[in-house]
Amino acid sequence: MAKKPDHPFASLQALRERVPPGAVSEPPLDDKPRGPARAVVRLERKQRRGKDVTVVEKLALPERELERWCRELKQALGCGGSVEGDAIVLQGDLRQRLPAVLAARGVARVTVG
What is the pTM of this model? Predict the structure, then answer.
C-alpha cells in the first residue's frame, strides 16, 4: 500500500511556530455590537383589551432592521410580538428583562417608562 501524503496544512503549522508573538493580527478589543443610540421601553394596556404589551420605541432603525430586531427579541425573550409603525410591540410585561437584552445588542441608552 502507498503511504498517504501528510496533511496539506502541516507545513503551515511549522511556519506559524516560527512567527514571533504579537506578529499575528488579533481581533480588535472593541467587539461589542453597535446598535441604536437609544431606546424607550414602556408598558401599554389601552386599546389592547386589557392585555399587557411592552412597546420599544425611538430605535430609529429602517423597516427591515426593525423586523429583524423584532424577530430576534422575540426569540431572546420567548414571547410574541410585531412591528407597528416605527415601534416593536412585544406581548407581556417585559420591562424588567428587556433593558439587559437591548444593552447586549448594543443599544447605548435604554429608558424604561
Answer: 0.70
